[in-house]
Amino acid sequence: MGFFSKLFGRSQGEAKVRTLGKLAFLEVDMHNHLLPGIDDGSQSVEQSLALIKGLHALGFEKFICTPHIMDGVHPNTKSTIAGAYDDLNKQLRNTDAKVEVYAAAEHMIDEGLDKLIEKDNLCVMPGGYVLIEMSYLSESKALFQTIADIQKLGYKPILAHPERYNYYHYNFDMYKQIKDTGCLLQLNLLSISRYYGTEVKVAALTMIKSGMYDFVGTDTHHEKHLAALQDVVTKYPVRDLLKTCNIQNASLLGHLPNKSIVSVG
After folding, report:
1. What's the DSSP call for residue 236?
2. Backbone dihedral angles phi then psi of residue 185, each to the nearest 5 degrees
3. What is the rounded CA–CA span in Å between residue 85 and residue 74?
4. Helical H runs in the chain?
5. Is the pTM of this model over 0.85?
6. For helices 45-58 and 223-235, angle between their N-to-C axes, nearest 10 degrees
7. SS3 content of the chain, % helix, strand, coil (to 5)
8. How far is 38 from 34, CA to CA, in rounded Å?
9. Which top CATH class is 20-253?
10. How far apart are CA 43 and CA 215, in angstroms?
């Protein structure tokens, strides 16, 4: 049984078929947790494959996997990320899915990140981008310094899901200040629904209307996220909604290195 036959068997229902290819205009999912067993995302190669199948059906054929690097919680390194990447690739070669997978990371702004910056040992995305995040509980006072330090290394920082930082919801000017530093902003697709709550949705839609986002990611961790994404693309005109923003996902295609491609036909 082929890839799509397995994915869209009778038991899957007509609803999933309606989502087929709806996110193909983005081309690259540049923020997800699909590498198995190294953070709070996929816990096994089998789960990773299932998530990739579901995201592929939504239209993605290229994935930049961004596991957490977070002191004391997810102490990943280039070595642990490469190991999980290799494990996933071995199994991908046994499928009939034609996808391209790459590895980078989502760096928490903490003392560990300071050390990585000092040693120029960041997990950099194709194109020289570095994905960073903050705690949802409290603002990092080091944000602007971190942005500047990453830029001094010649990289381009991307702040993950700014709409989810509740402490900025009543200080919207902070988003403009971050943009003014040259830091790029990445939207979580689920934020345009109420998945993370009404306040996050309002912040996301306000930022979309203001044209503030540069990238879009799924931030997929597990099957619940995948199911919610399928629901979002059914209910929301995602492509039309994002026309106010200069979304640069497709520009990543020109930077993707051939040596990392896993293309299985």
Report:
1. S
2. -120, 140
3. 16
4. 3-7, 14-17, 45-58, 78-92, 111-118, 143-152, 173-180, 198-209, 223-235, 238-241
5. yes
6. 10
7. 45, 15, 40
8. 10
9. alpha beta
10. 26
Task: Give the span between the Cα atoms of 137 and 139, in whole angstroms.
Answer: 7
Contact assessment for residue 213 and residue 245, using Cβ atoms and an 8 Å cutoff: yes
CA atoms within 13 A on the CB side of 185: 25
Long-range contacts of 115-119 (CB under 8 A, 24+ apart): 116/69, 117/146, 117/149, 117/150, 117/153
Question: Alpha-carbon distance 157 to 142, whole Å?
Answer: 14
Residue type, 61: E
Q: What is the pLDDT of residues 101-156, one digit of tens each?
A: 999 999 999 999 999 999 999 999 999 999 999 999 999 999 999 999 999 999 99
Tokens of 203: 């912040």
> Tokens 């003014």 map to which residue?
180
Show me where the domains of the chain are located: 20-253
Range from 137-151, 164-178, 201-215, 247-261 carrying the lowest mean pLDDT? 247-261
13-58 residue pLDDT tens: 445 556 789 999 999 999 999 999 999 999 999 999 999 999 999 9
- Our measurement of the distance from residue 70's CA atom to the centroid of its chain's CA atoms, rounded to an integer in Å, reads 16
Distance CA 101, CA 51 (A): 13
